[in-house]
Amino acid sequence: MITIDGQEVFVIDGHIHFWDGSPENWRNQWGEAWIKCFYDYHLALSPKEAVWPFEKFAKYSEEDAIRDLFIEGHVDMGIFNSTYLREFFKNGFNTHEQNYVLAQKYPDRFILCGSFDPRWGEAGFDVFRRMVEQYPIRGLKLYTAEWYNGSRGWKLSDPMAYRYLELCRELGIKNIHVHKGPTVYPLSKDAFDVHDVDYAATDFPDLNFIVEHVGLPRLDDFCWIAKQEKNVYAGLAVASAFIATRPRYFAEIMANLLYWVGEDKILFGSDYAIWTPKWIVEAFARFELPEDIKQEYGVDLTPQAKRKILGENAARLYGIDIEAQKAKLAKDPIGQQLAARQAA
Amino acid sequence: MDRAVLWERLDSVLDPELDESIVRLGFVHALEETGDTVRVVLRLPTYWCSPNFAYLMADGVRRALADVPGIRCVRVELEDHFASEVISSGVTAGRSFCDLFPDEAHEDLDELRHRFLVKGYLSRLLVLIQALRQAGALVVELTAATLGALEMCGDAAWLRTTDARRGPFRARIAARYVARRTELGLPVDDGSPLLLRPDGEPIGAEEFEEELRRLRATVVNLRASTALCEALLSSRQRWWHGAGQEVRR
Predict the structure, then answer these.
(1) For A72-87, what is the mean pLDDT?
(2) How far, in Å, CA of A174 to CA of A318, rounded?
(3) Hey, are the CB atoms on B47 and A37 less than 8 Å from each other?
(4) Residue A231 to residue A233: CA distance in whole angstroms
(5) How far is CA B8 from CA A19, A186, A192, B5, in A?
(6) Domain end (from B50, B81, B107)
(7) In total, how many domains does chain B have?
(8) What is the extent of the structural domain holding B73?
């Protein structure tokens, strides 16, 4: 919870991880390069006081995650964007199984995303069904730049991806988070394209597509698509981290999103543990668009817009009644710990 | 060999995505010459930088230096990248992108290059418009103006309108805009409209504001990406300079 304009605001962090990037888990040089690259992102945009040593960043504890998110980070609920990378990490980087370790202990705090990969082919249908049966999978995180058997990626518009999306329909999974951020694949012009989301969103109007990282570095292309497709949403992870050290860029990104996409279709995300949510949420609560940007775009980041972006939009997508959820959360171990802190 | 000439040539190689010189971005880690051979080492902001852009920059270096008098061999080395070996040896041998990634790349990079030349054009156009607006030019003056109304003298430029002269603003802004217009094959004769969309259509007064909003989205994206790349490159120094050393922030 964070206070904005004297009002308590419910916070759903739409993009979090509980990963193992430690050397013991590296399968090869790519595992090492992966976590080091993440650490560069961490260093590049974190304010000084929020910088971690590399060893902690590579593998942090359950206690760290609970404290950083809920006790200190103002977050009420978090959405696990599971990321597998089994070709880089022996046990995977941040699988739903691993995220479930935390989700199981605090079931009301977490929304668990699973995944599919069309390159599994039909043989993967059963694996997918089993995952949905065995775990409380409420959404999916798709990572189109995953390496698999010599291939370095896939597209949401691939025919087999459509077969899996049909399976999502059948199994009642409605929210599909798609990583459309910095990527290495495909190698030609499509690498800088978000149009596969466009096709899938048109053909599956009953599913919601949350484009993580707002398509950066393809923000403009993303904006044109999200304006046209009413089931395409903007996930703020990575963009939100600009807020401390690059506030002007953050303001311009927000103004564009508010103008093209609108305040009802933007979801907050910290990308924890690349960045801790505390400083981002606090800065976001205080943030005002500079006057010249307001004038130029004719938009404003009002307290109402902030409330929607921080929690209400994600709650709507996942069918969460915020007042009922608050009552539940007050009673769980984390809620009790928070209450005890406040009393002290 | 005049090293200044080599650096000047390198300065003309752009990161296609960011529309900025690889020298200014700090991507050139080393430049060495031995006899008629020059060796250039590139380091990019992440190990995972798209190989297509990495290739375009590395190949851009080769082309920029290949015809410098006295140079017979250009060796380009891309360091600390997941496709270092393929790109370094391939570019030095002058091979095409499809040749290097036969299973993954199905078309050469002309279309990608063109797409980012257009994005760069939009950025240069917006910068020109903003400079002229700041110098007092009215929307109707901008939409009515021809390219011939631009006057450049030394570092300064002006726009002549029917009854005024708007400026001065930095001549580099006008020069960069005209240069990219030429590269894209858009008209550059004195009588052609000052403001052109990338498809060659003039921008009229009625659609000016909407066009401007689109330009801004593209430019915000480009600037945010540049800021991120610069910050990542600076963080990445840590691994190259040895852990434990203070990171330049």
Answers:
(1) 97
(2) 8
(3) yes
(4) 6
(5) 45, 33, 30, 5
(6) B107
(7) 2
(8) 3-107
Amino acid at A214: V
Amino acid identity at A248: R
Q: What is the pLDDT of residue A217?
A: 84
Q: What is the pLDDT of residues A153-199, one digit of tens each?
A: 888 999 999 999 999 999 999 999 999 876 655 455 455 578 899 99
Q: What is the predicted pLDDT for the residue at B248?
A: 38
B208-240 and B110-134 helices, crossing angle to 10°:
110
Q: Dihedral sign, CA of A256, A260, A261, A264?
A: positive
Give the nearest partner residue to A219 out of B109, B221, B239, using CB atoms.
B221
Type of residue numbered A306: K
Which contiguous run of DSSP H or E holds residue A200? helix A195-203
Distance (Å) from the C-alpha of residue A48 to the closest C-alpha of chain B? 9
Please give the average per-residue pLDDT across A75-92, as a whole number: 97
Residues B40 and B96 grouped into a single domain? yes
Whether this prediction's pTM lies above 0.80 is answered by yes
Please name the amino acid found at residue A305.
A
Q: Is residue B143 part of a domain?
A: yes
CA distance A224 to chain B (A): 9
End-to-end CA distance of chain A: 18
Token pair, residue A126, equals: 């059963």
Contacts of B188 (CB under 8 A, 6+ apart): B147, B178, B181, B182
- Which CATH number fits the domain that encloses residue B12? 3.30.300.130
Q: Are A44 and B232 spatial neighbours (Cβ–Cβ below 8 Å)?
A: yes
DSSP string over A242-264 = HHHH-HHHHHHHHHHHHHHT-GG
Displacement of CA A319 from its chain's centroid (Å) = 17
> Mind listing the pLDDT tens digit for each residue in A277-333?
999 999 999 999 999 999 989 999 999 999 999 999 999 999 999 999 999 999 999
Q: Is some CB atom of chain B closer than 8 A to the CB atom of A242?
A: yes
Do the domain assignments include residue B228?
A: no
Report ipTM for this prediction: 0.92
Q: What is the pLDDT of residues A125-157, one digit of tens each?
A: 999 999 999 999 999 999 988 889 988 888 899
A277 vs A13: CA distance, rounded Å: 8
* β-pair partners for B43: B79
**Does residue B185 lie within any of the structural domains?**
yes
Dihedral sign (CA A177, A181, A182, A183): positive
Ranges of residues in chain B with a pLDDT under 70 are: 1, 242-249
Structural domains in chain A plus CATH codes: 2-324 (3.20.20.140)
Interface of A with B in 106-145 (CB under 8 A): none
In one-letter notation, the amino acid at residue B203 is I
